[in-house]
Amino acid sequence: MEILSAIYYGVDGFLISFYRLSQIPILGYYIGTGVLCLICVLIGQMTYCWIYRRNHRFFSSDSQEMIHMHNLSIKALGAKNKTAYKSCNKQANDAFGKYFFAQAAIGISSLWPVPFALGWMQSRFVQVDFALPIPLPGFGSSVGFMFTFFPIYVLVYILFGKIKHKLPYFSSFEQWRQASHSEAEEMMSFSDLAGPKAPGPTIS
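and the corresponding structure tokens:
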């Protein structure tokens, strides 16, 4: 707790300065909270990229196994080998489960700055109430700072996602990720069992 208190004390002056950019208190609050959310999103996304690079070999292995077994199940179905299809399909589903939960875990890792941001806001705005236009069941006629933080965070997250590919650090990461998957096996679909379509008749 002493370490957290020292961290909060160290960043307090920097963070609160954004809340004082406007002489209108409510406007300053939304500006400051917007900047705080942007910092959380930025640090979280940088963490995501770092973890992904560090664990790329494992993610790539799970992804390739999933696609390979899926393709084998499609080919077995095309060969009318029901036993092989069930076996390959089961292994493909198991590989998908591993890959899905790994991606979910790395996605959640990008949210780690949020609790620290809320902890700092707790020290500053715990006694601040925001009046609601109409009373809401379970909330009453006013809400606390967390009720405002999460909508702003979601909005900033969405907007940041639209410009992320234009920022040097994230654009280079995306280029690297695409290049690392360029030689991966392509996933087949059931439509591939029909084979290539015959060219239509030409009209002279």
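(Above: one complete record from the training split.) Residues 25-54 form the longest helix (30 residues).
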